[in-house]
Amino acid sequence: MQIPLINVHDHACAAQAALSPAAWAYFSGGAADELTLRRNDAAWEQWGLRPRVLQDLRAGHTRCQMLGKSWPMPLLVAPMAYQRWAHPDGESGMALAAAAQSCGFVLSHQTSTPLQDVAAWVAAEAMRGPLWFQLYWQARRDDLCALVQAAESAGYEALVLTVDAPVQGVRDRERRHDLTLPAGVRAVHGARASHEPVPGLCSGVLHRAPTWPDVHWLRQQTRLPILLKGITHSDDARQALDAGVAGIVVSNHGGRVLDTVPATAELLPEIAKLVRNDYPQATLLVDGGIRRGTDLFKALAMGAHAALIGRPAIYGLAHGGARGVAQVLRQLRDEFEMALALCGCPTPDAAHSGYLQKLSPLR
Ligand SMILES: Cc1cc2nc3c(=O)[nH]c(=O)nc-3n(C[C@H](O)[C@H](O)[C@H](O)COP(=O)(O)O)c2cc1C
């Protein structure tokens, strides 16, 4: 008998059954002891919801603002590498499902499908969400410029520069497996900055890592807005927005890079206070551990304009291709709409901290 897949946990079980042990370790795992990975999920549970009753919700909707434009849903699929390893539908199927569910899609620099092909599938979809391209810094600026121009020409609407992973995290779970990519799956636009071993931290990899002046330089190379992904400190949030980026993503890379970083649900309130007070034009996003529509509602109530999901979308892809992703997104959308309705909150931008209560641990 087929077990119905009605929530993200069910999709995770189906994905584990569909993937090889190595692929499961790669797609679901985190860094070191996976403390941040587990905390990301658990931290949303530490907030309770305080609904308001008898509200007039007849004008309610899920539209939201990101980068100065209105979009149907405050939910995006986060950039994730090598999606054709999870399922042959890969990045095209993921983007198509996101567009069909009116959610946004961020294509990873380490995509296993050319960026032009993915954009061609979805750019013309009338009800889609934002279509953005994520960048890792490259050793050669010419390579980076060429990629930026390709993303611009293909129709991507913003660049997301990931800044929290100048080196890869210590991934114990992955190291127990042979992570050789299957034949035909590779990062078609190159991976992270390659380097010759030189003295210094991490065999010289950091000689190629970006710094704040590089962010200024990147801004000069493109007409697209730039978001920095991987901000966990409010001083960095301020520095990023002072440097003129259009937005930031509060993210610890889903607990895959530096273990023991606090959960994003713990970091968001402080950063949101700064951004909403001092940079009202900036777009604020968050990811990490969002598994329920109520988690998305809590993120908005803390001050984010929208949130991204990573693993839940990969789980849908792994067991069901584009159809599986669409199921996951549809379920989260439904849960989110119910959270709005049941909290008595008509729209995403009406969510605020008054709907939240920090819970004390039960004994
Ligand atoms: C398998 C996998 C691959 C990822 N690849 C990238 C990547 O290429 N670029 C990037 O910026 N983040 C990458 N991330 C991090 C996600 O963009 C996102 O920050 C994280 O998955 C959010 O947490 P969640 O999985 O708990 O929703 C990856 C995450 C996963 C699970």
Task: Give a verbal description of the structure.
With 363 residues, the protein is an alpha/beta fold. The chain has one domain (8-179, 187-346): TIM Barrel, CATH 3.20.20.70. Helix content is 40%, strand content 13%. The chain is built from 13 helices and 12 strands. An 8-stranded parallel barrel has the order 4-5-6-7-8-9-10-11, surrounded by 7 helices. A two-stranded antiparallel ribbon has the order 1-12. A hairpin with a 2-residue loop joins strand 2 and strand 3 (69-71). Helix 10 (234-242) packs parallel to helix 11 (264-278) and helix 12 packs across helix 13 (311-343). It is globular, with a radius of gyration of 19 Å. It binds flavin mononucleotide. Flavin mononucleotide binds next to helix 2 and helix 13.
Notable traits:
363 residues, alpha/beta, TIM Barrel, two-stranded antiparallel sheet, 13 helices, 13% strand, binds flavin mononucleotide
User: Structurally, how many domains make up the residues?
Assistant: 1
N-to-C SSE series? HHHEEEEHHEHEHEHHEHEHEHEHE
Main β-sheet, in a few words?
8 strands, parallel, barrel
The CATH C-level class name: Alpha Beta
Architecture in CATH? Alpha-Beta Barrel
Classify the fold: give the CATH topology.
TIM Barrel
Count of separate DSSP helical elements: 13
| Distance from first to last alpha carbon | 39 Å
- The tally of strands reads 12
Global morphology: globular
Strand order of the largest sheet: 4-5-6-7-8-9-10-11
Bound molecules: flavin mononucleotide
As a percent range, the share of helical residues equals 40-55%
Radius of gyration: 19 Å
What would you call the structural class? alpha/beta
Residue-averaged pLDDT: 95
